[in-house]
Fold this protein.
Amino acid sequence: MHKSHENYYELIWMLAKTDFKLRYHGSVLGYFWALLKPLLMFAILNFVFSSVFADRIAGGEYYSLQLLVAILMFNFFSEGTNAGMQSLLSKSQLVTKIYIPRWTIIFASTVNSAMIYIMNLLVVVVFFVWKQFLPSPEAVMMFIVSSLLIYVIIISFSLFTAPLYVKFRDLSMIWEVLIQILFYATPVFYALQLMPLSIQQVLLLNPMAFIIHFTKESLINNHFPELWQGGTFFVLIIIVFFLSTLSYRKLSLRIAEEI
């Protein structure tokens, strides 16, 4: 059993590395393209909200650090869910012609997104050094846990939607619209505290809003969620993950026939 699991890990890693190489094959700038999108978004939003609306944002001189962290985290969520949802259809030849556990294809696609996210975090480190700001060890740990929770959300979403996407191709269009809505419903470029309390409570029902808000607060202000808040959120994420695995087992039975 242990050997079997080890083989699965090797297979996932091999597929993820292949995806990464193919994504930038023939590109002059290579990996830089993966960094260009979030950096351009950061540059535009940072200019607009630090210069044009400087009096209306919360975050002070470290607003740019909070903004960069939030953009990279949300971009990880966006890229990961898209890649995971489309993974089975994009690897249709593997699904129909070679027998490998289909869930390994889904995991490999999300691992590829995670690799890019981890590489992008080097930019975050550079910005924190440039600003001469050192977060507390507890805040760094909070950031790591938050990143892992985003990955669990990506996996849960992908296990549920990847089999459905094989049959319902409109899902990608629907998710593209929902991602835009979620972006504005997440305190990426604004502080949650600027909203009325009633709206704050509604926004925090969005898992990405909860994660990004408290990650920003912990890194800059050393403010953490209450133990009951963090514990409840963690338990809910784990429950969703297990429900997604159950749905995958049911929905994946006829994948090869429907591709």
Remarks:
- The chain has one domain: 2-258.
- DSSP finds eleven helices and no strands in the chain.
- The chain has a mean pLDDT of 87.
- The longest helix spans residues 137-167.
